[in-house]
Specification:
Layout (H helix, E strand, L loop, with lengths): L16 H4 L5 E2 L11 H13 L9 H11 L11 E4 L2 H12 L5 E4 L6 H7 L4 E4 L3 E2 L6 H4 E2 L2 H8 L4 E7 L11 H13 L3 E5 L20 H4 L2 E5 L2 H4 L7 E4 L3 H13 L9 H8 L3 H25 L4 E2 L7 E5 L11 H12 L1 E2 L1 E2 L10 E5 L4 H21 L3
Parallel strand pairs: 1-13, 3-4, 3-7, 7-8, 8-9
Antiparallel strand pairs: 2-10, 5-6, 9-10, 11-12, 12-15, 14-15
Length: 399
């Protein structure tokens, strides 16, 4: 390979959320990567740092051109006047909730889903409404492992208090790219019941090799007219700390409302490194192609390891993100209804931190989420720690 995805990078004592917030030996929880950034990004940040002046910046034309050019690969043709800069996807979603809903309104999410969705809704005094995804534990296909309950979705859209839906595409934590037919069914129902669809597409580039996701906004203009899309290079290129993202909508009324809200919330102003890093990221396609190969190989390593060494844990089929969804329901003890307790057991016994599935909704409580964006050596160490932890767990519980 041209790029280095094998070096073990010492991230301790760097104020790293993943490595320094807690003392776990194998932190495989928060969604960032233990790889060096793409060289273009590294060089751009160093160039800016060496300049020595870290004052105010503005969003230039080249940033918008970078977004526009990048998303053409996904069949989405954007214009500058349809894009707004923001400091992150979740800040954007915060502003959207404030701008397009009132206190006491409902915001619909599809659980299990990214846990911060819960916080940003509840902390803004809106109501979380769950459209729980349907899980098929016997499926060996991505398309049927999880499905949307459309009867329940329509019923909850009918409530006049339901003003907004947060769509996750690709979906975190189940790692699924939603197909065109599914997105169209969501759009038809949302438009019928006047619900705004906000699509979080931060994981969009992190699909299996040779697979592309479909942006919600690339649907027919009439179908996607009632939507806002949140995008960013941060997950793809591991630059979340540089705080760069964009919001896209063709709806001119939505655009003007959101432009004002982002300014009010002070989420529309870039830091000194964000602009150059974004431009550099979207010049790093060859790095991304190698990354996707590495992540797919890591997923296959996990699948083989679980099948051979820990058959009690099942890898849920996925085709996107570097976050794996592990079904632990076969561990037939009281713990199988408390993923928090099981996660804590692994941390205490073997120093392995996997995200407890209950964080992502009550229907995630028989699951753990594992971050595999790391060198294979670290991945294997984490898997061996998991194996030892399971053995200790079984002894303790007489399984």
């Amino acid at each position: 390979m041209k790029y280095n995805f094998d070096s073990i990078i010492d991230r301790k004592n760097t104020n790293s959320l993943k490595w320094d917030l807690f003392d776990d030996e194998y932190p495989m929880w928060v969604a960032d990567m233990d790889f060096y950034a793409a060289p273009h990004i590294y060089e751009s940040v160093n160039r800016k740092a060496k300049h020595g002046v870290y004052a105010y910046s503005f969003v230039n034309e080249e940033v918008f051109d970078s977004y526009i050019t990048w998303w053409k690969r996904y069949g989405l043709n954007m214009k500058k006047e349809e894009l707004l800069f923001a400091t992150g996807v979740m800040p954007s979603i915060t502003s959207i909730i404030r701008a397009f809903t009132d206190v006491g309104d409902n915001v619909l999410i599809q659980t299990p889903v990214y846990h911060v969705f819960f916080y940003v809704i509840e902390d803004n005094d809106r109501n979380v409404v769950e459209n729980q995804l349907i899980y098929n534990p016997n499926s060996n296909k991505v398309e049927t492992a999880y499905a949307i309950d459309f009867d329940d979705l329509e019923e909850k859209f009918k409530d006049p208090k339901t003003k907004l839906m947060l769509l996750c595409n690709p979906h975190n934590p189940i790692g699924r790219v939603w197909d065109e037919k599914t997105l169209e069914r969501i759009a038809v129902l949302a438009n019928e019941h006047d619900v705004i669809v906000v699509s979080d597409e931060i994981h969009c580039d992190l699909t299996d090799p040779n697979l592309k996701y479909l942006p919600y906004a690339s649907l027919d203009d009439e179908l996607s007219k009632n939507s806002i899309t949140c995008i960013s290079p941060s997950k793809t290129f591991n630059i979340a700390g540089l705080q760069s993202s964009a919001v896209f909508t063709r709806n001119k009324e939505f655009y003007e409302i959101l432009k004002k809200q982002l300014a009010i919330d002070c989420f529309a102003h870039p830091n000194i490194f964000a602009i150059d890093a974004t431009i550099a990221a979207y010049k790093s396609e060859d790095w991304l192609n190698e990354l996707r190969e590495v992540l797919f190989e890591n997923k296959m390593i996990v699948d083989d390891f679980l099948n051979d060494e820990i058959p009690e844990i099942r890898l849920v089929p996925s085709n996107a993100t570097y976050l794996l969804w592990l079904d632990i329901s076969k561990l037939n003890t009281d713990y199988n209804t408390d993923s928090n307790a099981f996660s804590e057991f692994l941390r205490e016994e073997v120093g392995l931190f996997l995200s407890p599935g209950v964080q992502f909704g009550q229907n995630g409580d028989n699951f753990l989420r594992m971050n595999i964006a790391c060198p294979k050596e670290l991945l294997l160490e984490g898997l061996n720690a998991l194996k030892i932890g399971i053995e200790k767990f079984k002894v303790k519980n007489n399984i």
